[in-house]
Design goal:
By secondary structure, this protein is mainly alpha-helical. Helix content is 75%, strand content 0%. The chain has seven helices and no strands. The longest helix is centred in the middle third of the chain and has 30 residues. The chain is globular, with a radius of gyration of 19 Å. The N terminus is likely disordered.
Length: 161
């Protein structure tokens, strides 16, 4: 009788509590985006809570969308998935905080104009800070995700936009 466990590769399993951890990070990122919209860091407060909740939903979906390729790369490289996803959550929380700090530092220099008049900063700074924090906190994973994306013939044209 043959031992089948030796002939098949071992598939890494998720640790206990993994879905709860991921769900908590999605909620934290969504709540942080609602807060950032409320204080004027992100656009959308002109629609009050509807705009803030839409921003929260957008950022939570952004985390979920980024978690899939980072999780795949982590599994392929045999790295701990929860650690990668926690760092990815920080890569989305820190841009909100960094943009808020930029707002606090720039408002006195922009006077008499207001932060909302420089709406392009609200649209430009968060994605730039996401790229910065991902490359700083997840350098190897970000590089692997970028390489995998450029090899995919359907996703490669999106990177050129």
């Amino acid at each position: 009788m043959t031992d089948l466990s030796r002939s098949h590769p071992v598939v890494p399993t998720q640790p206990a509590g993994f879905p709860q951890l991921t769900g908590a990070m999605v909620v934290a990122i969504g709540a942080a985006a609602v807060w950032a919209t409320r204080v004027g860091v992100l656009p959308g407060w002109s629609y009050h809570w509807t705009g803030a909740l839409l921003q929260g939903l957008f950022w939570a979906c952004l985390y979920a969308g980024l978690a899939l390729p980072y999780r795949t790369v982590a599994l392929q490289e045999n790295r701990p998935v929860p650690a990668v996803l926690v760092r990815l959550a920080f890569c989305l929380l820190l841009p909100l905080l960094s943009t808020y700090i930029c707002k606090i530092l720039l408002v006195p220099w922009l006077a008499p104009a207001k932060w909302q008049e420089f709406f392009y900063l609200q649209l430009l700074l968060p994605p730039l800070f996401i790229a910065f924090w991902c490359s700083l906190l997840l350098p190897r994973d970000t590089r692997d995700v970028y390489r995998a994306t450029t090899r995919n013939r359907f996703l490669a044209p999106l990177l050129q936009l």
